[in-house]
Amino acid sequence: MPDLTAIGIELALFGMGTVFSFLTLLVVTTKAMSSLVAKFSVEEPALMDSGTGQPSAIPSSDVLAAVSAAVHQFRRDKDR
Fold it and tell me: Which of 1, 24, 57, 80 has its CA at 20 to 30 Å from residue 9's CA atom?
């Protein structure tokens, strides 16, 4: 009959090897999926200034009015 300590060490090494293999596979799969998403993703268009047609970080007054109205409506309905 083999020594109980040897069986325990063998089982521990098998378990740690299994976990290490799974985590390695997980990292490789995650990196592969990340590179695929980066390769096939579509860049979102920048906000355009309606007057000049140039990209702008400031939304137009129409967008600001729509967002303001939506926030106002949400807060009013929330208080009821």
Answer: 24
What is d(CA 54, CA 45) in angstroms, rounded to the nearest whole number? 12
User: Is residue 77 in some structural domain?
Assistant: no
Task: Report pLDDT digits (tens) over 49-60.
Answer: 666 666 667 777
Domain count, the chain: 1
Strand blocks (E) in the chain = none
Residue 47 falls inside a structural domain: no
Domain containing 37 equals: 1-41
Q: Is residue 10 part of a domain?
A: yes
| pTM, 2 dp | 0.49
